[in-house]
Design goal:
The protein has 477 residues and is an alpha/beta fold. It folds into 2 domains: 244 residues, Aldehyde Dehydrogenase, Chain A, domain 1, CATH 3.40.605; 180 residues, Aldehyde Dehydrogenase, Chain A, domain 2 (3-Layer(aba) Sandwich), CATH 3.40.309.10. The chain contains 15 helices and 18 strands. The strands form 4 sheets. Strands 12-13-14-11-10-15-16 form a 7-stranded mixed sheet, with helices on both faces. Helix 2 runs antiparallel to helix 5, helix 3 packs antiparallel against helix 6 and helix 9 crosses helix 10. The radius of gyration is 23 Å and the shape is globular. Keywords: NADP, Oxidoreductase, Plasmid, Tricarboxylic acid cycle. Pfam families: Aldedh. Belongs to the aldehyde dehydrogenase family. It is an enzyme of class 1 (oxidoreductase).
């Protein structure tokens, strides 16, 4: 098939009715617009896709050693620029400076991880040649080509890097459509890779609105896509990719359970629960959101949990004393506020918080709410902010039933020192990952992804680097 004779990126005449959204840095601490960016034109996008397509044949022939060198150089730059980069991320989406710096350093670690281990992860998988009547037989992992990444704003660097590092190490090239409210973070990613020596065209940021994702995904120069974001966004990308028969990886959020049983260290469980809920100002897909507590320790846990929320300092994310900054967008705060207000109107009880703060910016009080029933939207929705829903259960069966009573299946936590209970939670919680006596987080050394409506595919580890590879069978007679 000759790509030169297939339809290219659709011209303006094929894009009537598409809405062009603002691409801008708006400081969520003040609500002030810091900087606006013009969306790329159709010609600019077409040229970027051409650069990527032309870069791929040469880049795929580079050695693992060469790619590892570029990834290590990128990690060096990230570490050297961590303070400045963290300040930029905090201004764009409101995470605390300490959290932002930790994110930058985590990205550096991921680049180094794949630089050091990528070659081994993609080594030929030797088969039993005698069993298949060959002199040699094996599986080879080869890059697919140009990969489109559609990324969210909540972890502006990490969400992108956990795709970029393995994809580049595997020999793919990429184009990034980042969230419209983190354009400086998006541009920094492509710039730091360029300064690290990555060949031209191998990774490019596209400053475009969401309406332009479909024509890019349909473009024959794009081989596959990955998306982290909302369920509606995932459905839209999956539908287009399915129509085009292109591979996708989707991570679509979660409503993670956090189960506490009588044998747990209640003090540790409650303290960790506070962090698990309000990490990243409560805006994390794998943040614990539903706290399911055995009745025998419910009162003890609740007292400690609410006390922990009461101690949180909400304020300017650039202040080292701040624990919780603003929500990233005004719409996000409105959505969270509606979930809480509707639940209270339907009979839920707020133990602490429950209101926006009367100040500039998009702040919302850390909130613990109980008496939540399955008739309330809060029961099923992903509350993306510092709001914890608390449930009392009679036994392990009820705990598992409530944990699984969701359309999501990203992560889960369970606190118990009983080996039999631990095994039941590992076996029976419907999720892509389960953490026992700890807080769900992500590591390059552990696979990341969900089931049900939390998406499909895996990131990180060898599973992540192989997602965008052609697993080619080789048989030699």
């Amino acid at each position: 098939m000759d790509l030169l004779h297939l339809p290219r990126y659709p011209p303006p005449s094929m894009q009537k009715g598409l809405t062009i959204m603002a691409i801008a840095t708006v400081d969520p601490t003040t609500g002030s617009t810091i900087r606006e960016f013009e969306p790329m034109t159709d010609d600019e996008v077409d040229a970027a896709l051409d650069r990527a397509a032309q870069a791929f044949p040469g880049y795929r022939r580079t050695t693992f050693e060469q790619r590892a060198g570029w990834l290590h150089a990128t990690a060096d730059l990230l570490e050297a620029e961590a303070d400045e980069t963290a300040a930029m991320m905090t201004q764009e989406m409101g995470k605390t400076l300490s959290a932002a710096k930790a994110e930058v350093l985590k990205c550096a670690k991921a680049f180094r991880h794949y630089a050091d281990h990528g070659a081994a992860m993609l080594a030929d998988e030797i088969a039993d040649a005698d069993a298949v009547g060959a002199s040699r037989a094996y599986m080879r992992y080869q890059p697919l080509g140009v990969i489109l990444a559609v990324m969210p704003w909540n972890f502006p660097l990490w969400q992108a890097v956990r795709f970029i590092a393995p994809a580049l190490m595997a020999g793919n090239v990429g184009v990034l459509k980042h969230a419209s409210n983190v354009p400086q973070s998006a541009l920094y990613i492509s710039d730091v890779l360029r300064r690290a020596g990555l060949p031209e065209g191998c990774f490019q940021t596209l400053l475009i609105p969401s309406s332009m994702v479909e024509p890019i995904l349909r473009d024959p120069r794009v081989a596959a896509a990955t998306l982290t974001g909302s369920e509606p966004a995932g459905r839209a990308v999956a539908a287009v990719a399915g129509d085009e028969v292109k591979h996708t990886v989707l991570e679509l959020g979660g409503s993670d359970p956090y189960i506490v049983m009588p044998s747990a260290d209640i003090s540790a469980a409650a303290a960790t629960a506070v962090t698990a809920r309000v990490q990243n100002n409560g805006q994390s897909c794998i943040a614990a959101k539903r706290f399911i507590v055995h009745t025998d320790v419910y009162d003890e846990f609740t007292e400690a949990f609410v006390a922990g929320f009461a101690e949180l300092v909400v304020g300017d994310p650039t202040d080292e004393a701040t624990d919780v900054g603003p929500l990233a967008t005004e719409q996000g705060r409105e959505d969270l506020e509606k979930l809480v207000d509707d639940a209270v109107a339907a009979g839920a009880t707020v133990l602490i918080g429950g209101h926006r703060l009367d100040r500039s910016g998009w702040f919302y009080e850390p909130t613990v709410i109980t008496d939540v029933t399955d008739t309330m939207d809060l029961y099923a929705a992903e509350a993306f902010g510092p709001v914890a829903a608390l449930y009392r259960v009679a036994d392990i069966e009820e705990a598992i039933a409530i944990a699984n009573d969701t359309t999501f299946g990203l992560g889960g936590n369970a606190w118990t020192t009983d080996p039999a209970e631990q095994q039941r939670f590992i076996d029976e919680i419907d999720s892509g990952q389960v953490f026992i006596n700890g807080m769900t987080t992500s590591y390059p050394e552990l696979g990341f992804g969900g089931i049900k409506r939390s998406g499909y595919g895996r990131e990180l580890t060898a599973h992540g680097i192989r997602e965008f590879c052609n697993i080619k069978t080789v048989w030699i007679g």
